[in-house]
Structure formats: C-alpha cells, structure tokens
Amino acid sequence: MTAKHFSVVAFSDEKGTAPVIGTALSIAIVFILAGLVSAVIFSGYADSFHKGSPAAKLTVYFSDDDSSLEFKHDGGDHLFFDSSSLSVIMDINGTSYPLNDSALGTLGVGDHRVLALNKSGLPAMKLDPEDRVSVKVVDYESGALIAKRDLEVKRQMVIKPELPL
After folding, report:
1. Beta carbons of 131 and 92 less than 8 angstroms apart
2. pLDDT tens digits, residue range 107-159?
3. I need a labelling partner for 13 at 20 to 30 A (CA). Which of 28, 72, 76, 132 fits?
4. Rounded Cα gap, residues 99 and 82, in angstroms
5. What is the CA radius of gyration of the chain?
6. What are the pLDDT digits (tens) for 16-64?
7. In angstroms, how far is CA 164 from the centroid of its own chain?
8. Which residues 6+ apart lie within 8 Å of 8 measured at CB?
C-alpha cells in the first residue's frame, strides 16, 4: 500500500468561497441602500427632532422702583423674545398673564433688558407683599420651560396699563 500525500492547496475548494463573498457583498449593499433611503426620507424630520429648546441662565427680578421686570442673560443660547415661539408668562396668585415681551428683543449673553409692567399687557391691579408672583419664560415650539423665577413683592405695587396712542 502506498501512502498518498495530501496537499492543502491541491484539495482547496475555491468554488465554495465565491457564493459566501457574493452573499456578504449583497447584504452590505442592501444595508447601505437602506441607510441612504432612510436618510433621504426622514431628513425632514431630523430638524424637528434634533432642534432643542434654547438653554439659558436667565435672572428675572423687579426693578428698584417696582415698575418693571428686569431680565439679565447670564449664559447660554440667545433668546429671541421678538419671535412667536418664546413667551413670558407672569403668574400672580395662581392666575397666568401672558406678557407683551416683544420689547425685550433678542437677549444674548451679558445683555440686560427692562420690561415696563404698565406696557406689558397686564390688567390694572395692586400687588401686595403677601402676593405670590412668578415669571416663566416658555418656548412654545419645543414645549420647554426656559426659566422660572419666584419673585418677592417687597411693597405694594400698582399696575396701571398705559393706553396705546
């Protein structure tokens, strides 16, 4: 009996590797095409999902003479009060009053603006030291609360709205 010498190269089955490589390439092409198609189809949604609300550190307080609210931007994104998506709401003893905040314009870091209470759209009222007052800045587009500050009424305040000319 004679011994046969087997060579790995001689018995290599090259026919078996072609289908495996072809299948792997086909799967890779399908994943790439699926990614491209989904990127094109969902590109319109990307702006609304990834567009977050502005994040800012905002200080709000009554002016020294209690006739206005003062807004100081201490850091973060610009706040565009002249847009329809951003609003200032003043809660007085559980009642909410949206303020006419367009006079604040755009607040950037370090900016300081004053909003006169007589020109803010509040009705005529008196505020006493025991009244609970808070100011909220809300981004309606994202539904986020940007800032909320509880304010202390130090002495009686009288708000008399000015009539437009």
Report:
1. yes
2. 889 999 999 888 888 888 998 998 889 999 998 888 888 889 999 888 888 88
3. 28
4. 12
5. 33
6. 677 888 899 999 999 999 998 888 877 655 544 445 778 889 999 998 8
7. 33
8. none
